[in-house]
């Protein structure tokens, strides 16, 4: 008996194909043992044209759609950081504060300078009225007063950003600094994911995959945390350039979060995109027809036009679905292939067709 050969390290699809072929070889519709005569009884089925659904698959990570890295406008020592990673926060909630001694001193210094500049301007105007000061001196004092006022407003503005508040309802994704640390202006202290705008799955695709993906493509995402559910998803972002480190292209898929389901940042999701590369319809044959399948190559026996013999044909196989295998080369739609009894055939062997599964059932003639 000829059994299918598969290389070590074959893919999951190849392993499944091997198992099906092994079962077919061991029991071809109950036909076991050597054929009783030189004419081999066989069963055949016609190759049919079929469009195989092709799904693009990837692994991604769940994250809030809107991620914000928050920092202080000015540098200083952190006095409090009342948050932890994973904590749910509300819009406006205070997260971190700088020690205010130096900040308050800076504001007070700017205020005193502004007040002095106003007094100097008032005195200069009085002296100008008495003919002691010149107009140019008064103009210089006015400029100094305006500059001091601007410096005061700048100090007050910076002081207002000596505390960090949650910009929206969300969850703390990362805590990047601790109490007592000295941070520079603009140094990220906390990363907040705003959940009010929903969730996305970020996945990386190769250059061969990315060319078939565009915004609006629909698909599904499944998570190990919810093994029996698939969540609707839609591509919302497609990178126009590859990541220089990995060479892959990032996409984002908006995921619909049903009522009562709790998502968590970092959950791994299996992405299946419906709109993937399309191919023209190709002939397809049952898995049971294949012999000596090896990766993309296999053999089948094709029934001769007179249905008296069968010839051995090499084929190039593709995708598999519902017990059928796509044939990229070697067969035409309508060719009748042997699906039972092929293990006992040689090229050109004489056959006796027991049943053509593709042929229509005969109709009874009414008397």
Assembly annotation:
single chain
- Main sheet properties: 6 strands, antiparallel
- Can you give the helix content as a percent range? 10-25%
DSSP summary, beta strand count: 21
How large a portion of the residues is in β-strands, by DSSP E? 35-45%
Provide the domain count. 3
Termini gap: 48 Å
- Sheet/helix structural class: alpha+beta
Rg, Å, rounded:
38 Å
- What's the CATH architecture of the largest domain? Beta Barrel
Q: Which fold does the CATH topology of the largest domain refer to? A: conserved putative lor/sdh protein from methanococcus maripaludis s2 fold
Helix tally? 4
Order the strands across the largest sheet as they lie in space.
2-15-19-18-17-16
Which residues form runs of ≥5 with pLDDT under 50? 1-15, 21-36, 357-367
For the record, what CATH class of the largest domain applies? Answer: Mainly Beta
What is the global morphology? rod-shaped
Rounded mean pLDDT is 82
Order of helices and strands: HEEEEEEHHEEEEHEEEEEEEEEEE
Could you characterize what this model shows?
This protein is an alpha+beta fold. It folds into three domains: about 120 residues, conserved putative lor/sdh protein from methanococcus maripaludis s2 fold (Beta Barrel); about 90 residues, Efflux pump adaptor protein, beta barrel domain (Elongation Factor Tu (Ef-tu), domain 3); about 60 residues, Helix hairpin bin (Helix Hairpins), CATH 1.10.287. It is built from four helices and 21 strands. The strands form four sheets. Strands 2-15-19-18-17-16 form a six-stranded antiparallel beta sheet, covered by helices on one side. Strand 11 and strand 12 form a beta hairpin. Helix 2 packs antiparallel against helix 3. The N terminus and C terminus are likely disordered.
């Amino acid at each position: 008996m000829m059994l299918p050969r598969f290389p070590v390290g074959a893919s999951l699809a190849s392993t499944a194909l091997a198992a099906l072929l092994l079962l077919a070889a061991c029991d071809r519709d109950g036909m076991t043992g050597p054929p009783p005569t030189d004419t081999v009884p066989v069963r055949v089925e016609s190759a049919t044209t079929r469009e195989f659904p092709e799904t693009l698959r990837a692994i991604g990570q769940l994250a809030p759609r809107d991620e914000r890295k928050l920092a202080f406008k000015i540098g200083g020592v952190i006095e409090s950081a009342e948050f932890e990673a994973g904590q749910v926060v509300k819009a406006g909630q205070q997260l971190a504060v700088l020690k205010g001694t130096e900040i308050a001193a800076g504001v007070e210094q700017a205020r005193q300078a502004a007040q002095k500049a106003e007094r100097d301007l008032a005195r200069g105007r009085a002296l100008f009225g008495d003919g002691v000061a010149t107009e140019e001196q008064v103009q210089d004092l006015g400029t100094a007063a305006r500059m001091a006022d601007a410096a005061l407003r700048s100090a007050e503005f910076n002081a207002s950003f000596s505390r960090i508040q949650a910009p929206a309802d969300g969850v703390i994704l990362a805590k990047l600094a601790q109490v007592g640390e000295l941070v520079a202006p603009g140094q990220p202290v906390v990363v907040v994911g705003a959940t009010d705008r929903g969730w996305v799955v970020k996945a990386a695709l190769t250059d061969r995959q990315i060319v078939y993906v565009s915004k609006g493509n629909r698909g599904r995402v499944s998570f190990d945390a919810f093994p029996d559910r698939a969540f609707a998803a839609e591509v919302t972002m497609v990178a126009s350039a590859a990541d220089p480190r990995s060479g892959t292209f990032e996409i984002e898929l908006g995921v619909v979060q049903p009522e009562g389901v709790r998502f968590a940042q970092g959950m791994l999701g299996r992405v299946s995109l419906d709109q993937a590369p399309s191919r023209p319809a190709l002939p397809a044959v049952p898995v049971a027809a294949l012999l000596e399948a090896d990766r993309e190559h296999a053999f089948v026996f094709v029934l001769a036009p007179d249905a008296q013999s069968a010839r051995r044909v090499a084929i190039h196989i593709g995708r598999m679905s519902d017990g059928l295998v796509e044939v990229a080369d070697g067969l035409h739609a309508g060719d009748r292939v042997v699906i039972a009894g092929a293990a006992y055939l040689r090229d050109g062997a004489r056959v006796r067709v027991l049943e053509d599964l593709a042929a229509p059932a005969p109709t009874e003639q009414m008397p």
